[in-house]
Amino acid sequence: MTAEPINLHPSHHPLNPQTGARRVDVVVVGAGFGGMYATYRFREMGFRVQGFEAGGDVGGVWYWNRYPGARVDLPSIDYSFSFSPEIEQEWTWSEQFAAQPELLKYINFVADRLDLRRHIQFKTRVTRAVWDEARKLWTVTTDRGDTYEATYCIMATGPLSIPKDPEIPGIDRFKGQLLRAAKWPHQPVGFAGKRVGVIGTGSTGIQIVQEVGKEAGELFVFQRTPSFTMPMRNEVLEPDYVAEVKRNYASIRESARNSAVGGVRPQSTRAFFSVTPRQRQQLLEDAWKNGGLAMLGTFSDLLANPEANEHVAEFVRGKIGETVKDPVTAEKLKPRGYPIFARRPCLDSSYYETFNRPNVHLKDCIADPIVEITERGVKTQAGEVELDVLIFATGYDGLTGALLAFDIVGRDGRTMNEKWKDGARSHLGLMMEGFPNLFMTTGPNGPAALANIIRISEHDVDWIAAAMTHMEENGLSTIEPTAQAEQAWMDLVYALSQRTLLTKAKTWYVGANVKDKPQGLTLFTGGFLKYREHCAAAVQGGYRDFVFERAQQALAA
Ligand code: NA7
Hints:
Elements: E1 15-16, E2 21-29, H1 33-44, E3 49-52, H2 61-64, H3 85-90, H4 100-113, E4 120-121, E5 126-132, E6 137-142, E7 147-155, E8 177-180, E9 195-199, H5 203-215, E10 218-223, E11 229-231, H6 239-247, H7 249-257, H8 277-290, H9 306-323, H10 327-333, E12 346-348, H11 351-354, E13 360-364, E14 370-373, E15 377-380, E16 383-386, E17 389-392, E18 407-409, H12 416-419, E19 438-440, H13 453-474, E20 476-481, H14 483-497, H15 528-540, E21 546-550
Parallel strand pairs: 2-3, 2-7, 3-4, 5-18, 7-19, 8-17, 9-10, 9-17, 10-13, 11-12
Antiparallel strand pairs: 1-2, 5-6, 6-7, 14-15, 15-16, 20-21
C-alpha cells in the first residue's frame, strides 16, 4: 500500500476574487469506488474536478474497515471496476472473496494507475453545499474552511459510511480499549490472552468473531438479533482460472450488467414448491456445499413466498444445530421471527464452529439485555462482564446517513433534511426535485445494497456523465427531475417493496436500526437490470421527466 497522501491544496483551481471561492466544474464528495470512478470519468470529459474525502486516502469503507477478518462477500472478479480493460488485465485477484488488505491494495493500484489523488483533498469533510439560484452553481464548504463553486455536485457518499455506536449508556466510561469496526486502527491489534467483547452480530460482527475467537483469551459475543450466515467457501484463485477470466472479462461484465444482482452468480426461475421435497432438500444441500450466496439464487421466490422462505430458514437452523455442540447455544444462535435473506445474508468460514471453542461465550442480549457500559466492561441485567477490549460492530446509519450529515440546501433554501423528513425521496436514486445539478451515486431508492455496488456506481456515474454531455451539447445550465416524475418513481419503489419480504425484518435497509429515523424500504427491489432499463428509458424519452434551464438564463458564474 502506498503511504497516505499529504493533504493537497488544489491551488491550480481559479480563485473567484469576489467570493473567495475556487471555481471548478464538478465537486465529488467521497473517494470510495463511486467517487473514484466519478473523478476519473469527469476528468476524462475535460471537466475541472475537485474531490473531497474524510478518510486519509481512497477506499471508502475499505479504507476504514480494517478489522480482522474484513472481507467482501461478493466474488472479487465481480467486485471490481469494469470500465478499464487495461486495469482488468493488469490486476490479478488472489482469492475468490478478497480480504480487506487486498481490496485496499487494488483500490490504491487503481488510484495510482489513473493518477486520481491529485484531484482529491483528503481528511476533509464537506460541511455545507448551497445552491446559488442566481449563478446556477453549488457553493461547497469544507471543515478546513475552503469554499468551492461548482456547476455539478456529485454525492458519492456511499450507503454505509456513517457508523453507529450502540444506544447504550456509559460508552465513554470504559477504561479498556474501545474499538469500532468501521474506524479500526491502522496498527495491528493483539488479542492474545485478552478478555474481548463484541457487540453486534451482523456481517461485520460475524467476520470479527470468527477471527478474534481464534486469538482472544476469552471472547464474549453480545448478540441481540442472530443473523443467518452461510458458508463462504473461499478459495485461492488458480492461475488457469484467472487467465480464463481475463480472456472473458467482456462477457462476464455483460452478464453482470444484465442480471438482477449485478454479478455473475446463479439465479433461478424455479419456484420453491415447483419441485419435490426431496429435490428441494438436495438443491439446498448443493447450495450449502457450493457456498457464497448460491442459496439465495436456488429458487426464484425466496424473497416473495413466506412459506418457501421458512423452509430455507429451517434448513439453515438445522445446519446450526448440526454444527454447534452445545444445544442451548445452538438454539440461541438460530434466528427466528424474521425471514431469511430479509437481513443481509452473511457469509462465514467458521462462525458457528467458533462457539465450540471453550474460550468463546455467547451472551444473549434478548434474554439478558445490556444495561450499560461500565469502567470495567459490559453490564447486563444478570451481571457484569469484565473486558480488556470492547468492539462495536453495531452497523451504520445506512442509505441516508452521509447525505443528511451536513447541510445540503437546494432551491428556495429548502434543505435535504426538510425534503427527507418523512423518508428519502429521489428520482431513480440519482437526483431530487428542488436540488438541480446535484447527483447521487448508489443513492436511496436505487438498488444500492441489493446488487453489486460497483456495477451500480459505474452505471450511475455513466448516467450522470451522459446527462452532463447532453447539457453541454445543448447549452443547458441546470437539470432537475420534475416533482411528478419523482413521485411516480417513489410510488413504483413503494409498490415493488410491498411484494418482497425485505420489509419484514428490522434492518438498516428499512431504517429500523436508527432511533427516530423514518421507516420504510427506500431501495428499488426490481433488480439491477430493470433499474438500468428505467434509467435508460429516462434518457431515450428525451429527458422528459426532467426540466432544464438554458445557459444564457444563468448569470455569468
Ligand atoms: P448490521 O447488519 O446493521 O448489524 C449491526 C449489529 O449490531 C446487529 O446485530 C444489531 O442488533 C447490533 N446492535 C446494534 N445496537 C445494539 C445494541 N444496543 N445492543 C446489542 N446489539 C446491537 O451492521 P454490519 O456492520 O454488521 O453490516 C452492515 C452491512 O455491511 C451489511 O449489511 C453488509 O452489506 C455489509 P439488532 O439487529 O439491532 O438487534
